Amino acid sequence: MPQRLSSKQVRADFNDLRAVVHYTRAAHRLGLWASELKVFDQFLPQQKTARILEAGCGAGRVTLGLWELGYKKIHAFDFAEELCAQAQSLFLEREVGKAVTLFHADARKVARHPVVTGMSFDAALFMFNGLMQIPGRRNRRAALRSLDACCKPGAPLIFTTHDRRHSKLERKLWERETKLWLTGRQDPALVEFGDRYFEDDLGRTFMHLPVREEILEDLAATGWTHEWDAMRRTISRESRAVRDFSDECRFWVAKRG
Ligand SMILES: C[S@@+](CC[C@H](N)C(=O)[O-])C[C@H]1O[C@@H](n2cnc3c(N)ncnc32)[C@H](O)[C@@H]1O
To answer: Is 100 helix (H, G, I), strand (E, B) or coil?
Structure first.
């Protein structure tokens, strides 16, 4: 019987060459999405000296974008060693210097990491659905709590998720999936209803697709106050390259209580 998916497997999938090439290419060529730029402009602190903590930085796409926007106190981390190595080489090449501190950590435990001990951040980010790539709601909540513990009161947390009710097609797919779960015929690797685990030419991808109410509950249970959310298509039109890299998602902004 195939084993239930674990964070260890997800980390191995992100360290897989196919994923590393994909995220490294995006970090070098794609930059920030139009919607990310708008949301950062609206919700990140305006002062470029603000301390920003970025979870799941991958090969550094968002980190580099923040640096290009002028932010000079960025701490970025990822739990996939191969992606951290790619981010490191990109930051060296672009000469970001001391503006970016890159470290290796798991979001569920980041508050206990020596690099951030004693620090208090003005904002936290977990972009491009990274939070939803943590299997198990308990673990996603642990990550939210850990980010909360790293931030100052009032600090924004910005992240994205999918939404399994966002389109007719998606709702149909989940109706079918409901039947599988009710009869115990779901993929045995999945941890919870809403999970997806698939393989394509970019490697294996785990993703939990929530409904909006679930995220509202998770924020409330972990010290965050919901501030704003919207589907990406309502925020900005994205280029073809961005749409090829990433499908529709919901942006979230919460504030540390
Ligand atoms: C979809 S990728 C996005 C990468 C990058 N932020 C970007 O937008 O190109 C999600 C990232 O989250 C990271 N991630 C997933 N679970 C994590 C965890 N528990 N702790 C730290 N990073 C994690 C993955 O390794 C991956 O780099």
So the answer is: strand
Per the CB < 8 A criterion, the answer to whether 60 and 77 are in contact is no
Model confidence pLDDT, tens digit, residues 38-65: 999 999 999 999 999 999 999 999 999 9
Ligand 1 atom closest to the Cα of residue 54 is 6
Structure tokens at 163: 């939404």
The tokens of 108 are what?
A: 């569920």
Q: What is the DSSP letter of 154?
A: T
pLDDT of residue 2: 59
What is the secondary structure of 217-240 as a DSSP string?
A: HHHHHTTEEEEEEEEGGGT----H
* pTM reported for the whole predicted model: 0.97
How many Å lie between the centroid of ligand 1 and the Cα of residue 55?
Answer: 7
- The DSSP bridge partners found for residue 196 are 207
Residue 151 is classified by DSSP as B
162 CB contacts (<8 Å, ≥6 apart)? 129, 132, 207, 209, 210, 247, 248, 249, 250
Kindly list the structural domains of the chain, giving each domain's residue range(s) and its CATH number in brackets, ordered by start.
7-256 (3.40.50.150)
187 CA to centre of own chain: 24
For residue 93, count CB atoms less than 10 angstroms from its CB and return exposed for 0-12, middle for 13-18, buried for 19 or more: exposed
Show the 3-state SS of 110-136.
Answer: HHHCCCCCCCCECEEEECCCHHHHCCC
If one residue of 133, 162, 204 were mutated to test the ligand 1 pocket, choosing by the most ligand atoms within 8 A of its CB, it would be 133
Question: Tokens representing 144?
Answer: 């939210």
pLDDT of 57 reads 98
Looking only at the bridges linking them, the beta strands covering 100-104 and 203-208 are unpaired
Q: Rounded to an integer, what distance in angstroms lies between the CA atom of residue 220 and that of residue 145?
A: 10
